Amino acid sequence: MHSVVIKEVKLHTINVSLKAPFTTSFGTMKDKEVCLVEVIDESGHSGWGETVTSDEPYYNEETTRTAVYMLNDFLVPRLIKKEIKHPRDVHRMLSFVRRNQIAKAALETAVWDVFSKKNEMPLYEVLGGRQKKIAVGKSIGIQSSPDELVSKVGQYVKEGFQKIKVKIAPGADIEYIKKVREAFPDIILMADANSAYTLDDIDHLKQLDQFNLLMIEQPLAHDDIIDHSTLQQNITTPICLDESIHTYEDARKALKLGSCKIINIKIGRVGGLQEAIRIHDLCKEHNVPVWCGGMLETGIGRSHNLHMTTLSNFIIPGDTAPSSHYWNQDIIQEDITMEEGFIQVPAGTGIGSEISAEALNDKLVSTQSIVDDHSVHPIPS
Ligand SMILES: O=C(O)CCC(=O)c1ccccc1C(=O)O
Ligand SMILES: [Mg+2]
């Protein structure tokens, strides 16, 4: 395959508004700035990535502004004008910067896209996935009452979603899940706590075992794998880790400790597609299923998610709902749509989805162009 040399990187900061506010145990999201990373190679192809950040550091420590800062001052200068033989090398090239996984992933995914386009291949093929229809689930934010939640679940089940995920927090958990389960005895149902509990809540969380949940996602601290292991020994509902897994090493240790039985893979959280593939492969070796998490992405991040989900161990429906569930107008030319609970991976080379120049212009806050190593910091070569 042909290598790529990056000639220019554009950091497009845009402002987007969700159709409806989305509430989790750590807060409510409505409007956010995100940065679209456009990587232009010497043959003139553009590859795209997205910072799956928001304005506040409540999911993890990053924000869109910290990501833009890291990209501009450190990450882009490391790659600009360098020959990249394969995008799998980018993760290592960016490893001189500690963490900042979402910033790294936005750049790394854009390189996967441009590399695939230059080589005239769809991204999933470069990743080693097999084209298939992607099974889709729906993540539902915390609602004002159990009845409101039941009505939302009914709506999404009717639309064809193959898995329903309900956000929970103390005060909006057992009663909510109980009502949903009573109304829908047979749906594939799970809960996501976003780190709202501690080990003091073992007895409380044990009550969830009666509802036949597919899993409970990240019940304990965002940085914990020890207490999750204790909790897993005390509940029958499988634990899935989200926030705690930033690297292959985190995943290896969590599996070794028995801290979870399932892993949610988010490209942003693990610093890019290369690390995501490694975690996917590790889980497959251990017979641990994975699924693709969501970060309320625009069509750019969403397309990357769909391509990743073609890998063989993504056997649980992901949080990859269609564009219309998030945006009045997506940033890509053709909305991502769902039919009977499945989404087709966007066809074409790279991620398949093309940016809409009109939508970009409409939402644009500012663009920074980087054409050389302009950094005032020493960047290792
Ligand atoms: O529909 C989606 O994109 C998933 C939404 C979601 O659950 C989520 C959204 C923002 C931050 C964290 C999470 C999460 O999975 O914990
Ligand atoms: Mg989660």
Number of domains: 2
State the separation between the terminal residues, measured CA to CA: 23 Å
Total helical segments: 12
Q: What is the general shape?
A: globular
Catalytic activity: (1R,6R)-6-hydroxy-2-succinyl-cyclohexa-2,4-diene-1-carboxylate = 2-succinylbenzoate + H2O
Pathway: Quinol/quinone metabolism; 1,4-dihydroxy-2-naphthoate biosynthesis; 1,4-dihydroxy-2-naphthoate from chorismate: step 4/7; Quinol/quinone metabolism; menaquinone biosynthesis
Domain Mandelate racemase/muconate lactonizing enzyme C-terminal: 146-238
Protein name: o-succinylbenzoate synthase
Keywords:
single chain; 381 residues; alpha/beta; Enolase-like, domain 1; TIM Barrel; 12 helices; 14 strands; binds 2-succinylbenzoate; binds magnesium ion; o-succinylbenzoate synthase; EC 4.2.1.113; O-succinylbenzoate synthase activity; lyase
Please outline what is shown here:
The protein is an alpha/beta fold.
Description of the structure:
- The structure is a single chain.
- The protein is an alpha/beta fold.
- It has 2 domains: 4-120 and 357-370, Enolase-like, domain 1 (2-Layer Sandwich); 125-344, TIM Barrel (Alpha-Beta Barrel).
- The protein has helices at 64-79, 90-93, 101-118, 123-127, 146-159, 174-183, 202-206, 226-234, 248-257, 273-285, 299-308, 357-363, and strands at residues 4-24, 27-41, 46-50, 83-84, 133-135, 137-140, 163-167, 189-192, 216-217, 239-241, 262-265, 290-292, 342-344, 364-370.
- The strands form 3 sheets. It has a 7-stranded parallel sheet with strand order 6-7-8-9-10-11-12. Strands 1, 2, 3, 4 and 14 form a 5-stranded antiparallel sheet that branches.
- α1 (64-79) packs across α3, α5 (146-159) crosses α6 and α9 runs parallel beside α10.
- 2-succinylbenzoate is lined by residues 59, 139, 192, 194, 242, 293-296, 319, 321.
